[in-house]
Amino acid sequence: MSRPKSPTALKPSPLPGEGGATAPGEGASFASRLLTWFDTHGRHDLPWQHPREPYRVWLSEVMLQQTQVTTVIPYFERFLARFPDVQTLAAAPIDDVLQRWAGLGYYARARNLHRCAQAVVELRGGEWPRDIEQMIALPGVGRSTAAAILSQAFGDRHAILDGNVKRLLSRHAAVAGWPGLPAVQQRLWNYAEKLLPDARLADYTQACMDLGSQVCVSRRPLCAVCPVAGDCGARLQDRVAELPASKPKRDRPQRSAWLLLIENDKAALLLERRPPSGIWGGLWCPPVIAAEQDWRAELAARYGLRAESVQALEPVEHSFTHYDLSLQPLRLRVAPAGVAEAGATAWTTMSDPSTLPGLPAPVRKILDAAYFAPQKAQQSLWPEPSTA
Question: Where in the sequence numbering do the catalytic residues fall?
Fold first, then answer.
């Protein structure tokens, strides 16, 4: 009796163009069809495209990490108005950078953005590297971001592999497995590099991102209008719905915390700078106390304060990448004596929202509702001064 053959599913099939496999349409054909589509349907009026210069492209690529184009555009324009070049950004205080970043989330990007600008100015005299390895060595710049900068700003021949392109190529090459796995990701990099054209690299890079975000979308992709559907492996194998494979699911942790809106006798609010690592790193924020801790004890131990009155506000739910957080804001009135201003804490007057430092987006919404909504404008926990 012959031995049963090993399941072929355990051995990855070759990508088009690998190991003698035929690449349907070949790379040049894929690129030419994609560029023809881009000329008519692609995005040509994004603010960082005019001009396509390294600083603007780099700034847009960092902002676009895990953030949609429509969200990024107004932030990009405001950021560029304040920091028009890498020298201005490098010289700016980190608080100024974080303030203009507030609302985009993933605040490590803003801190790395500032560090990267300083590295380009201090180590390279303000000139951006043309070597991809030197570009990757800059703070906050990964392989795909580096390739996007070099291809779009200089027309250099480098492949990108952001989230949209991973999905596009996973389907076109019918690559099984979650793209976050190193082996799967390497196969996608190999395929992306095989498809590169010899010219129009800036347009090709944008075309890949546009096709992935507008046509080859996660749910209900528009295969009928896709310029490369004719040789798409997922479509030919009827596997569009299953590719790319999803990340293995785990139960999302649920966390809860108190957000202490501490007011003194002058109606000023206590803010503190968050640690550089962790959630909202480097931003200013009212004190956050884990729900399992006694917030009154922490108020006394950390700040030397005692609450004289407490008002519970509406709780707020916020989702981070790896867990969900339920915030219970407490508006507290404290005795006049207490914590002194230091580098990490400050009493902040709540009279003009435009003067507030960079705050996390969910916290800013809480403060806007508590202090700056029309019906709250004159409201205070402190009694009116006696006229008797």
Answer: 61
